[in-house]
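Why does residue order matter? Because the sequence determines the fold. Keep that principle in mind as you read this record.
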Amino acid sequence: MKIGTITLDNATIIENTISGLIVLFVSLLFTIIWWVIKNNYTTIIIWIKRQKLKFFPANFNIALSFEFEEGLNSGNYFEQIKKNLQKNINHTGLNKHIIIKDFSDIHKFSNKNEAESFRSRKNIDLIIWGDFSRDNLKANNEIVNEIKLYFTYGHPENKEKTIGKMLSLDLSSSLAQKNYCKIYDNNSFEDIKIISNNIFDISMFIIAYTLLLYGHVTKSLELFEKLYNDLLNRKDNFRKKVTPLLFFCYEILIVEYGLNKKNWKLGLNLCSKILKIDNNNFFALSNIAVSQYRLGLEKDAENSVDELLQLYPGNHVTEVNVAFFRILQKRYSNAFKHYRNIINSKETILTQDVIEFLGAEYDNKKEPAFLYGIGVLSFRFWDKKLALRYLSQFIEEASERDYKPMYRKAKEIILKINSLR
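Structure:
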């Protein structure tokens, strides 16, 4: 039993010794790791940042690179600007789409060629770079820091290199509206807020603009909408610079999805968004009536057309829309007058979608006046043979008594077309 006891004690001693060695080894290992981290902290952080640069898990990515004096005013100002910029992105709900990375300690740019080369290699949407003036400089006995800001971004280009020039010119005028770049020490909080907002506004404008040029209209619209609403809440007049491009995105989508793909609800929604900003907008008023009519909102459509007539009398799109609703109201003499205005106008272009629309309405309602509309518009803008076909069909189906002015004009045009054959 003693032997057994001695053997058990030896086993316990050996086990405890091994456990002690393991604890000592682990402790030593962590000590070494801590020492390595402590003495190489900056190197490790830079390495991690370089790895992050390879992976931007977002639709849009922004890199920052600034020269400043860490621990002094310029360093503190930069940290606050960066914080405010992220706050703006969060506030507008874009934090899931836009990622900002600061690489000021690993990449510096002395000119735009260096910045563009880096941007292109790393596939970054936008680099905001520059430097602060030296700390403790004074102007009028006040300590002031001035920031030099540069924006480097990618964009499509044509053979003539005109897109880049156009974009540069447009952005130059935008930057001119957002050129406040001085931070006075006794007003630093407000100055930093202004500069942070300016950087955010210009950054969103650049990304949205370039996305539009690349054909990503929906993504571009999302950014322009967020930027516009934020500017509106801040009562910032820079929104006037954003509005034309915002409307351009709306118009593209209204034509592509609202009209071409017959998504009338989307068309109505987008037109309404334009009219909320500009209640007299011609494009939106002329197109919202179509969507309203297709959705069965005929009274709303009539009201939109009447407003269009009041604001834009004589426009050929107005005349077409008004003539259509006058036919629905069986006011044929009034519809005739509006078609006559189109025939006598100097307009040279009218989309053939109008013919398709009137043709579909004729098939649905069997209203002969729609045949007259197709005929006179074809005669004025496109195909004389097509005009002859539809005007002849109108004569066959229409009553001269009910459609007197249209009937007479149709016969007159038919005679003219036949005389040219």
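Residues 66 and 130 are 5 Å apart (CA to CA).
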